[in-house]
Amino acid sequence: MEMALEAAEKHPARLYTLGPLIHNPQAVEFLGGLGVKVKNRIESIPEGTVIFRSHGVSLKDLKKAKEKKLHIIDATCPIVKKAHFFANYLDRHGYALLIVGDAYHPEVEAIRSYLKGEVEVVDNVEAVYRLGPWEKLGIIAQTTQSFNLFKEIVTTSLEKAKEVRVFNTICHATTIRQKEAVEIARKVECMIVIGGYNSGNTQRLAAICREIQPSTYQVETARELNPKWLAKKGKIGLTAGASTPSWIIKEVESEIRRLKSL
Amino acid sequence: MEMALEAAEKHPARLYTLGPLIHNPQAVEFLGGLGVKVKNRIESIPEGTVIFRSHGVSLKDLKKAKEKKLHIIDATCPIVKKAHFFANYLDRHGYALLIVGDAYHPEVEAIRSYLKGEVEVVDNVEAVYRLGPWEKLGIIAQTTQSFNLFKEIVTTSLEKAKEVRVFNTICHATTIRQKEAVEIARKVECMIVIGGYNSGNTQRLAAICREIQPSTYQVETARELNPKWLAKKGKIGLTAGASTPSWIIKEVESEIRRLKSL
Q1: Looking at this predicted complex, what is its ipTM?
Q2: Whether residue A198 has pLDDT greater than 90
Q3: Catalytic site includes residue B107
Q4: Do B165 and A161 touch (CB under 8 A)?
């Protein structure tokens, strides 16, 4: 996000992002105001500068951007880059690869596009039973995946492979955020999760909280807060997805305080 | 066992085993009748032939046997040899090593004696929480360990290590035996487990069955069967540890049939 803002200042015109920069509509709108255009296909970018967003970019798009001689600003998250590195390492060393994640998430699509060997993307334990057996199995995760699902899939895969080599590529901040959200959810009577409806990690955060506290609600902005949710409730808990800008979090917090004081 | 019998025929005198050849007193007694002597320390073997039993032998004992110029018959189980191979491989490649097993079991003691780096032997999940964290963690298991414990320890270790590399060294026959024993225990009203009281894998088998069917009894021989266990019971289930000779199993089976027909 900071990188994109800097770029927007330096390259006021002909600045594009390939897909929305982050899974947060309000942040994307804000960038739009600065003249940054969102294009979903590299073919639609005629010239100028392209920002590769935090999710990373596929091999095909990387090649096309180079062919078109676009100026590239690579804002791929360093944690995502690490996941790329370990996926490629395992692939090169003859491991069949399991990626714990959502097959259609751009991060996973990008990671997958660089691999030459056998790759499977799984988001549930049952799927593992239908795969394998393997001699050598490598496992990594989409960086914002649930750590518990990751652990369950590793455990299950042990029944199907002689060697299992696991790199924990889950973003530590994501794991901590999930753990903290669970602890908060345990102590409150209502839980608000802030983040884009198109953000996988925000949805997972909401799902994890809802298991503990059924009165859990997801909002994208302060305006969506429903006073009825907060009425007659004691402590209210608050958490936000990885890509939620801090100004949105602050707005939601203020609005909750205002509504509670009425 | 077959190997040892063959050796006993070829080398009728001066034939020793280092420790009881297998964890089954009746089988050891039988070999004693053939002139095979059990010595617990290599120092007590003056000359002649030494049989390294299925559990394998420590580096120290191997060196001493060579120094003494004893003739060596290596009856180490091939599955145990594989565990040695993977433990050494991980050790050589800079992995801290977790061995899922009993620290004082001769198999584990032997595997451990060849390793140069950090090694920990764990037989419960809680122990893992007190260890680490690690950058690179390798995990193997004593060949007759419970697969469930192995899985739980791998899962737990994921919280403590960035890379976890697992070789499943559990004897497939042991895993199958445990699974089958559980299925049998579910269908019967009394479960008999045959095997040496000093056999770890037999004890584990009995413990696993007892969780399903509280009326589970371990015996070493047919003589130990108590008619009261079988009285007023429907189907009786039967299983045996890895080192239980088939003639003992057959004797127990006949005795159960005899007692049930009374």
Answers
A1: 0.74
A2: no
A3: yes
A4: no
